[in-house]
Amino acid sequence: MTAALRAQGLGKTYKRRTALEDCTLEIPRGSVSALVGPNGAGKSTLLNLAAGMLEPTSGTIEVCGGVPGSGPEQLAKVGFVAQDTPVYAGLSIEDHLRLGARLNRAWDDDLARRRVERLGLDPRQRAGRLSGGQRAQLALTLGLAKRPELLLLDEPVAALDPLARREFMRDLMETVAEHGLTVVLSSHLVADLERVCDHLVVLVGARVRIAGDVEDLLATHHRLTGPRRDVSTLPGDQHVVSAAHTDRQSTLIVRTESPVLDPAWSVGALGLEDLVLAYMSSPDDGSPGGAATGAARRTGLEVVR
Amino acid sequence: MIEFHLDARSGVSPYLQLVQQVRHALRLGLLREGDRLPTVKEVVAQLAINPNTVLKAYRELEHDGLIAARPGVGTFVTRTLTDASFAAHAALRTELRRWLAKARKAGLDDESIEALFMTTFRTAAQEDIA
To answer: How far, in whole angstroms, is CA A90 from its chain's centroid?
Structure first.
């Protein structure tokens, strides 16, 4: 498996605050990866590091086989649409397209103009007068027309209504189908990403809690409900991600490669959102919830295979 | 041509939903040998989903010998699933209706009927495996 993005022990510290810590992961080429986590978890920092807008404080990061932003060749390979879909408010759509054509050697002017036409936008209109959805679509157009190998999108649909979200995702997926680029997009809402991503990275508190192929993750996580039970009595290959108890009942979310055979449990499948929430809400450091940490770390590392 | 849909709350992964919908259509005779399936791009445009998901579903159906891709032309159904068992559907449906009527008469509501059916179905399936 070739990686579009590879991070080894990556970290970023601002003055006193740790934004990203000991991040080791791989994003497979051709995948659509979701980067999820609560606000302030380090998603934007990771994307900015991948785009070469920030320098790491520790560790290394490599995108499309090179150091981010290390030269014109490298810059051409990676597209980055930062948060809040930045466009120049005073420039027209036409100005944006011309700027894109001047600044990018692989610029696909055809693609850009076809998209603007299909979106029903007037090229003479100033970007500052566009609606949130239109601005997001213009920023995506610029990102796509650059024809990058890897496209990084930071919270691309956060400001969009449900219809605009669907249209944005559809356009993005059509381009993936046509050009086979790798996409990494961040969101704090999993529901937006369930249909589109095949790879998942969960960041919580500046660390990677879990990463992997979505199908694999869903197949190896289960919800167990049954009579109250001490989690330390579970088989060794069942890693507890989260546990909740009432006086009689226990509800666990576990990760395990093998089937759960204990008849005391009723075993249920987990949706992507439940899985992410389980990792977001479980403790991260080595204290009492240590089993969860162990499971997450191991999974985080397994992805490097 | 078949039109796919996705149920986000079904708990079934998108790729499996596509596979199941094709198999279902084949079983009900809605898709027949020689029918063309929508292209990956058409499905992506319609459902706003990851093309890899569609490719994965088509690969699995191809592996099962149900469809075949003809490069540059499209993906076509090569086999139907409306085998001999299709003829038995009507009789089985009548019997099931009769059973449902009996269950209601005994005082079972929809939920109890579904629960009874599913547990019996699962137990029977497990016994078959064992």
So the answer is: 31
The CATH number for A3-205, chosen from 1.10.10.10, 3.40.50.300, 1.20.1440.230, 3.40.50.1240, is: 3.40.50.300
Are A52 and A295 within 8 A, CB to CB? no
User: What CA–CA distances, in Å, run from B74 to A178, B23, B69?
Assistant: 15, 18, 6
For domain A214-302, which architecture applies? Answer: 2-Layer Sandwich (3.30)
Nearest CA in chain B to A163: B48
Rg (CA), chain B: 18
Q: A3-205 and A214-302: same fold?
A: no
Q: How wide is the angle at C-alpha A268 spanned by C-alphas A197 and B52, nearest 5°?
A: 20
**Phi, psi dihedral angles at B129 (to 5 degrees):** -70, -45
Question: Environment class of residue B102 by beta-carbon count within 10 Å: exposed (0-12), middle (13-18) or buried (19+)?
Answer: exposed
B14-37 pLDDT per residue, tens: 889 999 999 999 888 888 889 999
Classify burial at A58, counting beta carbons within 10 Å of its beta carbon; exposed 0-12, middle 13-18, buried 19 or more. middle
What 8-state DSSP symbol labels residue A130?
Answer: S
What is the ipTM score, two decimals?
A: 0.71
Residue in B closest to A29 by C-alpha: B52
What residues of chain B lie within 8 A of the CB of A274, using their CB? Answer: none
Q: What is the rounded radius of gyration, in angstroms, for the C-alpha atoms of chain A?
A: 21
Range of the domain at B50: 14-77
- Most A CBs within 10 A among B10, B17, B52, B118, hence the mutation to make, goes to B52
Whether pLDDT at A295 is above 50: no
Contacts of A32 in chain B (CB under 8 A): 50, 52
Tell me the domain boundaries of chain A.
3-205, 214-302
Q: Are strands A78-81 and A150-153 parallel, antiparallel or unpaired?
A: parallel
pLDDT digits (tens, 9 = 90+) for A234-289: 888 899 999 999 999 999 999 999 888 888 888 888 888 889 999 988 765 433 33
Nearest to A204 by CA among A36, A79, A39, A41: A41
The residue count for chain A: 305
- Cα A154 to chain centroid distance, Å, stands at 9
The pLDDT value given to residue B129 = 67
Regarding whether B103 and B70 lie in a shared domain, the answer is no
Distance from CA of A102 to the nearest CA of B (A): 31
In a domain, B6, yes or no: no
